């Protein structure tokens, strides 16, 4: 902004200097014409008629010459006064015109400068408004995306906490000797493991199910078996071998329990 204003000021000074130069040049020409017009009569004035010198009129000729020289001196003095007056008047006129031209040039340049500043301000304001219009949707979209990312991060944190809570609950039931509740808790954790990190957490959950089932201390009720089978259906196919192992252990333990009852 400061650079543009400096360029405008330099342009204004250049226009003023050009205007002043043209005005002074014109008035100097007028002054030269006026001086030539006043000088012409003095140089064209004929000298006084002096009769030829004779021996009998030497004294009177000297007196007449003195009178003529005095008259010429008076004429030259009057001419000098007229010339000086002309010069003074011309300089006064030139000064007045120069001041007038400078004042008019300054006023016109000041108006042009103000107009240029207003136009520049309007242009900058319009550019800023256009930039704001372009940035507003982007900022809004960025804010929405940032909010969504924050919500997703919060949900991930909440799922992690729930997952750790369910695992802690299963470990507590196992320490208390209630393996059926531990199996039920590990089965519940499969949903969260699929959302958090299937490639890491699903194998861990399946390993825990196999480890608890191999202890053969769990009381496998229909509710527990149904819950485990329903959750095993959601496990990806790449873990089919581990899923089959869990189902085989459940089948064997259920068969053993049936045999014991009979």
In brief:
This protein is mainly alpha-helical and 262 residues long.
Protein model, in words:
With 262 residues, this protein is mainly alpha-helical. It has two domains: 2-43 and 63-133, no CATH class; 177-261. 87% of the residues lie in helices and 0% in strands. The protein contains six helices and no strands. Mean pLDDT is 76; it is low at 40-56.
Secondary structure topology:
Blueprint: H1 2-44, H2 58-175, H3 179-196, H4 198-214, H5 222-232, H6 240-261
Helix pairs in contact: 1-2, 2-3, 3-4, 3-5, 4-6
Distance between termini? 98 Å
Number of domains: 2
Gross geometry: rod-shaped
Mean pLDDT: 76
Quaternary class: single chain
Total helices: the number is: 6
Could you estimate the helical fraction of the residues in percent?
over 70%
The structural class is mainly alpha
Task: Give the DSSP E fraction (strand runs of 2 or more residues).
Answer: under 5%
The H-and-E topology, N to C, reads as: HHHHHH
Low-confidence residue ranges: 40-56
Biggest sheet overview: none
Radius of gyration: 58 Å
Number of strands: 0
